[in-house]
Design a protein that fits this description.
The structure is a homodimer of 665-residue chains.
Chain A (H helix, E strand, L loop, with lengths): L34 E4 L4 H12 L3 E3 L9 E5 L11 E5 L4 E5 L2 H16 L8 E5 L6 E4 L2 E6 L3 E3 L10 E2 L2 E2 L4 H12 L4 E3 L7 H4 L6 H12 L4 E5 L4 H4 L11 H17 L5 E4 L16 H12 L5 E5 L19 H6 L10 E6 L14 H4 L5 E6 L15 H9 L10 H4 L4 E4 L15 H12 L5 H13 L3 H11 L2 H8 L37 E2 L19 H6 L9 H4 L2 E2 L10 H24 L7 H33 L11
Parallel strand pairs in A: 1-2, 1-3, 3-5, 7-12, 7-18, 12-13, 13-14, 14-15, 15-16, 16-17, 17-18
Antiparallel strand pairs in A: 4-5, 4-6, 8-9, 10-11, 19-20
InterPro entries (chains A, B): A-glucoronidase_C_sf, GH, Glyco_hydro_67_aGlcAse, Glyco_hydro_67_C, Glyco_hydro_67_cat
Protein name (chains A, B): Alpha-glucuronidase
Pfam family, one (chains A, B): Glyco_hydro_67C
Amino acid sequence: MPADGIPEGEDMTVHPMWLPDDLADREGAGLRGRSIAITGEGDLFETVRRDAAALGLRLVDVAGADGADVVVEPADAADALGPESFALTRGTDRTVVRYGGASGALYGWFQLLREAVQAQPHRGLGTTRHEPAHELRMLDHWDNVAVHPVMGQVERGYAGGSIFYDDGRLRDDLTRVERYARLLASIGINRVAINNVNVHAREARLLTDDLPGVARLAGVFRGWGIRTHLSVSFAAPLTLGGLGTSDPLDEAVQEWWAETADRVYATIPDFGGFVVKADSEGQPGPFAYGRSHAEGANMLARALAPRGGMVHWRAFVYNHRQDWRDRSTDRARAAYDHFAPLDGHFDDNVVVQVKYGPLDFQAREPVSPVIPAMRATRVALELQVTQEYTGHQLHAVYLAPQWREILDFRPFGDDGPRLAEIVRGGIVAVSNVGDDEFWTGHPLAQANLYAYGRLAWDPSLDPAAILDEWIALTFGMDERVRDGIHSILDESWRTYESYTAPLGVGFMVSPQGHYGPAVDGYEYSPWGTYHFADRDGIGVDRTVATGTGYAGQYPSPWRESYESLETVPDELLLFFHHVPYTHRLHSGSTVVQHIYDTHFAGVEAVEKLPAVWAALEGRMDAALHARVSDRLAEQRRSAVEWRDQINTYFWRKSGIPDERGRTIY
Amino acid sequence: MPADGIPEGEDMTVHPMWLPDDLADREGAGLRGRSIAITGEGDLFETVRRDAAALGLRLVDVAGADGADVVVEPADAADALGPESFALTRGTDRTVVRYGGASGALYGWFQLLREAVQAQPHRGLGTTRHEPAHELRMLDHWDNVAVHPVMGQVERGYAGGSIFYDDGRLRDDLTRVERYARLLASIGINRVAINNVNVHAREARLLTDDLPGVARLAGVFRGWGIRTHLSVSFAAPLTLGGLGTSDPLDEAVQEWWAETADRVYATIPDFGGFVVKADSEGQPGPFAYGRSHAEGANMLARALAPRGGMVHWRAFVYNHRQDWRDRSTDRARAAYDHFAPLDGHFDDNVVVQVKYGPLDFQAREPVSPVIPAMRATRVALELQVTQEYTGHQLHAVYLAPQWREILDFRPFGDDGPRLAEIVRGGIVAVSNVGDDEFWTGHPLAQANLYAYGRLAWDPSLDPAAILDEWIALTFGMDERVRDGIHSILDESWRTYESYTAPLGVGFMVSPQGHYGPAVDGYEYSPWGTYHFADRDGIGVDRTVATGTGYAGQYPSPWRESYESLETVPDELLLFFHHVPYTHRLHSGSTVVQHIYDTHFAGVEAVEKLPAVWAALEGRMDAALHARVSDRLAEQRRSAVEWRDQINTYFWRKSGIPDERGRTIY
């Protein structure tokens, strides 16, 4: 990093996301020109000092702290602040950040910045405590080192190539990574896994030959309080180690992993650990040796434990060679069936990483029952910032409202804790950035990354308030910009849901790439994601009484609530029940009329967006404005295609006309 | 070619197809050891002499021809034999081939070989005249020079890589091409186009930089009486020539093509000409300049005419960005609408190349109405030997019965000529070979290539008799082998039809690659191939009275026959009419019961094949036997998948149960 704290290099035209290089053009940027005194020794403190200086603050000696406008200093033991926490005290003349540890100073600095740019303190004078809800706040990159023939450089990436790799090798110039690390630190992310969970041959070598390169990446992240993790292949002892097995109970295998971990730690002393997708969609795993996933995960965990490393073990295990004719198998059941019996059998440094729903990041799924089932295990909630099933960053979809609903879900009913409170293994999400000029393809998708970090830190934050922060940081305090973006994004997730697969049934996307409609695209596939639509009705009977029994994987009251047509929420009706098209929802509409109505309404909502956006022209960077305009046009085209294919499909199948006589093909 | 006439080289393990290197292991190979006297000077005669010697005949001087067992000599003018024709006279002691020209001698030699291996003369003593029904008998290769990211080395190739190219360049070793040329000559093929009709940037350079390599290929083919053609891009004056246009009426464009043709002829004196896919599926064409396809084709033809070259101009022109919601557009109409008005406007050295059906090589389509509509034009019939829509050479499908039906079609009714008689531009087909050990992936698919050549020469040949020839040449005279292969192949096309898309509706294949079922795979696509199935019925109304009017493109009596439900043939019902599932076919069955019955029956037929084949083990090359066994297993798996998806789709949609109560999912 250059001396002024702002990364420079090949791509200075890259958009700064929510951290402009200069505060001069941000209204109310009250920090500029102020004096700041920072107490503390070490790299993270140097990072904060450099950042503050680069943004125009005046560093003063701690000895002169009494006169400084901003003081950053260690908290008292009595404050009982954790190493990442801080307290922010605003007085009339001075602002004081008291930190629990160096990371707390870093996060406190960015909180100051956030509030300054919003012309706050919006919480007024006094002290606020800031403590992360989760110790582990992680981003997973599904980046490949070598361009994959089908998946490309970034699996499920919709923002260009990888910022870490360039066709076959680690990048020499890490300028972009430095910017990225700063952005992540500003939203509290403290862990990054730098390669795809599907570990191909080239990527497996990150663990061995490429360690010097990984160490360079880790060094950049370390400067911003972020630890680096690697996705590894469970078969590595076989494929890299030359052993005849990767059986977790084999001593040579255990030794190989221990030695491998030692080599990693010799190069990267604060290495975070391994991410493992085992026995999943063709990846190797302990099942090949008749071992349990606990045995597999613990073996790896023991190799890492002496140095403080973690294993993130994904629970995304199911039969992906299912026969569509087999109604007895239910993919939704799989993670619970595999993992719930293992609760309590995982070592302390194992995190079982569970996708938020039982299928795969659909716009609407019930919250996974694995999380409440494994209270004796450190379970992480896995979200997807990259918009695999939510429009590929071509559609404007702000995901924070969905995530907030998930985090707020109370698995044991109204009197029980929220999901966010029982997730003891932190929050993980798949990143949405690439080497695109705007990082995320759709510039408004930056808000998802921002919101993810903020919610991982504090799951009680209001999605609209988070959006306010992101807008102020990114565009300044222009009220028309703020209102315009809110009007595009606030309801965008529900709008997307309304014009795509209805009522929680999911998976009506094109099997090629997961963009655009294909109602029967997965209906006869081996992937276990079916809707069973016939001329009379649609939906998957997952009840205990007559279906696959999936509803019974929930604790009360949800097992009863989902089981019954009387109580199942409308938005999940078809996930849990097969019903006639004439079935009447709680909303009063029939299923088929609901499908028609929501699809027409969804398109109507999307059709309003271009004018909203057009009105903001001239109020922001022209290239960014143009990019969003292009994507809104594509979203409109695609939404119409969704509407027409879905409506036509159900009209042809049901023969029930639209009550309002609108055009169905 | 080495001196002994049999090509040698890197791949001597390659299967010889129907021309074994040695006749010793063929029963009744009565030619071996016989003496042969060949009159004639020139390369083709040398080819025949070398081939005869290599197969164990004794060449004797023409001066000693009186004592020779076989005499090959020029015919008298009174015989009126064309340059490719010959008469074969079998006496008790001697066989005489009298040829019209050098090619006639070559084809006469292979006829001798064919009959000898079948322990014939099966026509007994006396004289038979052999004259090709079509002057132009061509194979098109959809081979790419550079591996295409989606289509690979051979577009729609199911037999490995190209025998001409190896990832980015022409092969140095043309041993395999030499074998191939000999095989083609043996079945009378006299024209080969060596590159994909979709001309990508790399392939465009075959016309310029690569001419020396093309000349090497052409030299190999020339030795076997075959002229070489190139697929060219209509935009070549722009992309290769640096002109600002490729307008066919532009003088600079005309000059560029004339000079280009001159350069080609300076390198390849017998160059065959250009194949052009213009204004089709994204390829450039004259429409961009407001010119007709006659203007485009004639411009190219005039560049080639001075040297005897041809233009093969494909009629596969349609709107491939159709909106599925638009019922007014019918892709089936497109070729006729574009080309019929141009009848009589094409130069004599233009061949308009028409796919056999109006869509795209489906297992069942009506014969294209373009052919009878263009009696003043040299129209070629285009077939597809490569099994794009008929099982990818994983399914055993013998296509000769389909081709024979097409060739026998009488467009003007029972008193009019057969299609084969009005096709004045010859027969063209897409080849099915690759660098696979057995050339064609499925060894039994060799029979399709063999039958194609034989039918192009003589469209009145019986498919079963052609199969007898191929079996005898390939496997010898083992009756059990012959009966087994007949029992697998004779009905294989109708069997394939029975378990795939029903009643001529077509296109229920997976859009990715065209293998396996996807009933709605093309239903909402831009490709214009829809079935319009709803809960009440299925099919495309192409009548004049209420539909797209396509039926009216046929002359009487077919326009009336196809128009009416009373007279439309069952097998084309859904191509021409949208009918209820309860509509009763001429066969007495309802549409939906027909679908169920044929799909169960198709699988039952396929399930019998492995045992038939297993009984032939030990009677042929073990590797070939094993390869076919593997493919029959895949065919069975795939046929079951077809049956179950199709039947389930129509059961779910119609709600009408199978009369016989069989399992539908």
